[in-house]
């Protein structure tokens, strides 16, 4: 799902390398100002989101919760961070993982000191400091007597989620490590100086460990490490490397889809909201310096190109006669999804793109914010030659077909037209696409995708496209649903300065399969027993893929 350059990075991917406690601004904001912010938030949700009432029980339920949110603001007001926690249930009621608000406070590791990972539908200890190393690899069963299943229910009322893997992801990343989250998630421990946690050891034995709060951590985070070193994505979020001297297996790591040239070209064609700043950031990431040239087009021409990288990939694979391509999407939390189409073009050809996308539905919710941030095409131009005119706060159903009755008979033709329009917005890829020189250039025998709960948004789209083309998925299901909301609009509340994003589109890619539309199954799940057999290696999914597809490769 296209989500132009607003990422939903999971907290624990960036904060667990240090244990620094940072002071949070505790100035109270007056209740009257918070009233205005809550009403502003409700207006934004109802204006921007395609269907903000569906998951929460309807419009009346939404407004009942809205009034409760207003009514329960204390007379003395709240700090920005307390207000953030106060309004989280209202945002979560939308039931959309792409609609969320950002914590205005800084990370403070004063809760349960466990870096948790997701395996199957459970949480396990993925990292700890030295004094708790005996807990590494243990499954988490309950906290203060509250079972994990109940914790997931509570987490779902605090943050929007598409499926259970999103709740697990949020619980692992937000639920335990900060006391401010922990006390709200588990009020049973609020004000207490210790918390009891029940674990299960790899052998099956259960035990309870009691943590004193706040924890005085004595060392940095430790994980099980890995037998395999991945290629670095420090400069570019997509990079490949052959594994082993035979070059029979190649690993393509795509950690993000936000910093490739073709995405910026497409963004530029839509009006370029915030384009120059983000292009400069991508340039700095790749080259280590600020761009000298002020011209945006020239900056874009120097950014890493998916067209060029994937062309080199298929050329080298064909030359080496590679058998297996492993595509690591475990950390890919989104960006611009058209990178998926570029890769499919080289591996499977344009016909496969059309076949996969022909029945996809996309419903756009118009609003003043949509026209400010998402497009430079005025409504008058959109309404040109229309019998039924669209309105500024209405819906665009031009790309909607959710049932057999409403799907166009010429779906394949429409898919081709739609893709052609997108190609024309990406000059770098357009040149290759029009030539067709490298279309379906090389398809190795095995195409394998590594997935985790963090494979999200456009990362999910790439996984879905590849899976539909024939690739196999190894790992943990994505926290992204196929039938979902996305393509986000950003906002900031006036008085608290809390900011976040709201979905502006509805996507349906499984119109006839609601279960698959909620969770895309993996072909080879990484089970807890399999994780144990790899000694909790951080790249267990990769080790499993290598085991499944005939390569036993480790590198120092």
Automatic annotation (TrEMBL):
Coiled-coil annotated residue ranges, if any: none
Source lineage: Bacteria, Bacteria division CSSED10-310
Top-level taxon in the UniProt lineage: Bacteria
The name this protein goes by in its record: S41 family peptidase
Pfam families: Peptidase_S41
SUPFAM superfamilies: ClpP/crotonase (SSF52096)
InterPro entries, alphabetized: ClpP/crotonase-like_dom_sf, Tail-specific_protease
Tail specific protease domain residues: 305-480
């Amino acid at each position: 799902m296209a989500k132009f350059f607003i990422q939903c990075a999971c907290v624990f991917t960036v904060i667990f390398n240090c244990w620094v406690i940072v002071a949070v601004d505790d100035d109270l904001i007056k209740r009257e100002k918070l009233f205005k912010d809550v009403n502003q938030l409700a207006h934004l949700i109802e204006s921007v989101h395609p269907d903000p009432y569906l998951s929460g029980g309807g419009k009346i339920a939404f407004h009942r919760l809205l009034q409760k949110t207003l009514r329960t603001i204390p007379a003395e007001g709240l700090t920005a961070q307390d207000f953030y926690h106060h309004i989280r249930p209202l945002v979560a009621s939308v039931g959309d993982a792409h609609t969320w608000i950002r914590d205005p406070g800084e990370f403070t590791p004063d809760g349960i000191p466990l870096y948790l990972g997701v395996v199957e539908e459970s949480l396990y200890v993925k990292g700890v400091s030295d004094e708790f190393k005996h807990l590494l690899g243990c499954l988490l069963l309950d906290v203060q007597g509250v079972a994990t299943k109940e914790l997931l229910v509570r987490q779902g009322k605090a943050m929007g989620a598409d499926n259970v893997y999103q709740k697990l992801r949020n619980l692992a990343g937000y639920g335990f490590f900060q006391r401010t989250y922990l006390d709200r998630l588990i009020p049973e421990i609020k004000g207490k100086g210790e918390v009891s946690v029940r674990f299960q050891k790899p052998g099956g034995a259960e035990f309870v460990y009691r943590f004193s709060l706040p924890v005085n951590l004595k060392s940095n985070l430790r994980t099980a490490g890995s037998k395999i070193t991945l290629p670095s994505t420090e400069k570019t979020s997509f990079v490949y490397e052959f594994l082993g001297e035979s070059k029979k297996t190649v690993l393509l790591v795509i950690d993000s889809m936000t910093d490739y040239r073709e995405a910026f070209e497409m963004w530029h064609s839509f009006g370029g909201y915030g384009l120059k700043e983000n292009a400069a950031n991508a340039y700095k990431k790749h080259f280590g310096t600020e761009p000298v040239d002020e011209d945006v087009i020239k900056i874009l021409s120097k950014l890493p190109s998916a067209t060029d990288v994937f062309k080199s990939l298929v050329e080298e694979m064909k030359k080496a006669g590679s058998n297996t391509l492993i595509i690591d999407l475990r950390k890919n939390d989104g960006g611009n999804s058209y990178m998926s189409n570029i890769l499919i073009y080289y591996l499977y050809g344009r016909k496969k793109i059309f076949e996969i996308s022909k029945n996809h539905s996309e419903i756009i919710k118009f609003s003043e914010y949509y026209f400010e941030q998402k497009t430079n095409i005025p409504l008058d131009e959109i309404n040109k030659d229309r019998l039924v005119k669209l309105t500024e706060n209405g819906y665009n159903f031009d790309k909607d077909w959710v049932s057999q009755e409403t799907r166009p008979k010429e779906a394949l033709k429409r898919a081709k037209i739609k893709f052609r329009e997108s190609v024309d917005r990406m000059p770098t890829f357009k040149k290759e696409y029009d030539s067709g020189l490298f279309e379906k250039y090389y398809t190795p025998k095995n195409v394998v995708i590594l997935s985790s709960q963090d494979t999200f948004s456009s990362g999910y789209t790439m996984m879905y496209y590849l899976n539909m083309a024939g690739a196999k998925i190894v790992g943990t299901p994505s926290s992204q649903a196929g039938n979902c909301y996305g393509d986000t609009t950003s906002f900031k509340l006036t008085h608290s300065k809390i900011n976040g994003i709201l979905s502006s589109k509805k996507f349906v890619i499984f119109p006839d399969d609601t279960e698959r539309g909620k969770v895309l199954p993996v072909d080879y799940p990484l089970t807890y027993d399999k994780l144990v057999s790899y000694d909790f290696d951080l790249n267990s999914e990769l080790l499993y893929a290598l085991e499944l597809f005939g390569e036993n490769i480790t590198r120092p």
